[in-house]
Design a protein that fits this description.
Blueprint (H helix, E strand, L loop, with lengths): L2 H31 L1 H8 L18 H11 L5 E7 L4 E7 L2 E7 L6 E10 L5 H11 L4 H26 L4 H8 L9 H15 L1 H14 L3 H12 L20 H18 L5 E5 L10 E6 L11 E5 L6 E6 L5 H7 L1 H6 L4 H34 L1
Helix pairs in contact: 1-4, 1-5, 1-13, 5-8, 7-13, 9-11
């Protein structure tokens, strides 16, 4: 048996075995790509615009923290986000219940309709799709393992598909790069072309989705291999855990005052900031740190000029300042892994690309199965 026949045999039967997993992964992935956009449009009000004022100072975080004690008593602060020309967004969270409030940044007034509640325990369509995407609606460990190994099989199917697609000569290459259908072309031929030609053009993007998904799925060897490849043979370095100094435990009032000073410090250091976001430490984790990100554009997911600060939750000493330009290439690849997988790396253009990529990925098991059925019938005849 020749090498190509072996590859063909493996491609066929592995595709038949794992096709349903690939289909579920791709179709649920397509559903999830625009989740945040759809929720922002239907379930929450878009962040109201507030004209920028040069004659007034933006209120400090403590003002909004004080207001939340009466608006959402018992709910710890989770996040506060300042955006130039927009309302201040404050999120509180407790027992998987999240509340979001929109305030005027200059007057501290709760805007009309500026409150939204979200119970994470209540499953919506996107939660259902995510459950299928992560573990196929099966028990977590079993379903997660099936998803990971099904994705590994998908990587092999993509690579073996290119081996089988590869033409012997230039004449064959022209035929396999475009659809040359006539009125007389039968559906079997059209289905075959859809499987091969679409698979060829979207292979790189499907590989990106599969490999980033494997890393998110907890496959440590994928992470280590990716780092080894992108670093030229280096091992993944051991990361130092950054923790707050618990010998300086402070009161809630002291925290608010300290956060105000931290807010002033990072915004003054970055006068051209457009977004300043502060993530509060988990109240139950005493060593947890305060995290802040500063962005200089509002309409980009990544402009690679963002600054990220990690600070001690008690004395607000900056423990780490992370700049995109300071990351080496393997760390940069790891940092954007999630956004590559979700298609947000280049905002709407990449979302559209990966949305159609996921749909194409979902068609491949179906068209491949139809090719196999067609050949089975042909043999019987």
């Amino acid at each position: 048996m020749s090498f190509k026949k072996i590859i063909s045999w493996l491609h066929l039967y592995l595709g038949l075995i794992c096709g349903i997993i690939v289909y579920i992964e791709c179709i649920t992935g397509a559903c999830l790509i625009f989740e945040q956009d759809i929720k922002a449009f239907y379930y929450t009000e878009r962040v109201p615009r507030i004209p920028e004022r040069n004659d007034a100072e933006i209120l400090k975080p403590s003002v909004f923290s004080t207001k939340m004690k009466s608006l959402a008593p018992g709910y710890p602060m989770h996040e506060i986000k300042y955006s130039k020309g927009k309302a201040v967004v404050v999120e509180v969270e407790k027992d998987e219940k999240e509340k979001t409030f929109y305030f005027d940044p200059y007057q501290g007034i709760l805007l009309p309709g500026g409150e939204h509640a979200d119970d994470k325990k209540v499953k919506d369509f996107f939660s259902f799709a995510l459950d299928g995407h992560i573990h196929l609606w099966l028990p977590d460990k079993f379903g997660g393992a099936l998803t990971n190994y099904g994705t590994i099989a998908f990587v092999f199917l993509l690579i073996s598909g290119i081996v089988l697609w590869w033409p012997r000569n230039k004449a064959g290459l022209k035929q396999r790069l475009s659809f040359k259908w006539k009125d007389s072309t039968r559906w079997k031929r059209k289905n075959y072309d859809l499987h091969n030609i679409l698979g060829f053009y979207f292979m790189i993007f499907l590989l990106l989705l599969a490999l980033t998904g494997l890393r998110l799925g907890g496959m440590r060897w994928v992470d280590k291999s990716l780092y080894w490849l992108t670093s030229g043979g280096d091992a993944v370095p051991v990361r130092k855990i950054i923790e707050s100094d618990t010998s300086h435990v402070a009161s809630a009032l002291a925290f608010d005052r300290g956060l105000d000073k931290f807010f002033t410090k990072v915004t003054t250091a970055n006068p051209s900031w457009r977004i300043a976001q502060f993530n509060y430490p988990d109240p139950e984790e005493k060593t947890a740190t305060l995290f802040s990100s500063i962005k200089f554009y509002q309409d980009r997911t990544y402009d690679f000029t963002d600054k990220h600060y990690t600070a001690d939750r008690y004395n607000f000493k900056i423990l780490q300042t992370l700049l995109w330009q300071d990351r080496n290439f393997p760390d940069l690849i790891r940092a954007v892994n999630w956004d590559i997988h979700m298609g947000t790396i280049f905002d709407y253009w990449s979302k559209l690309l990966f949305f159609f990529t996921s749909l194409v990925g979902a068609t491949l098991p179906v068209s491949g199965f139809l090719i196999w059925i067609g050949r089975k019938k042909k043999k019987k005849i």
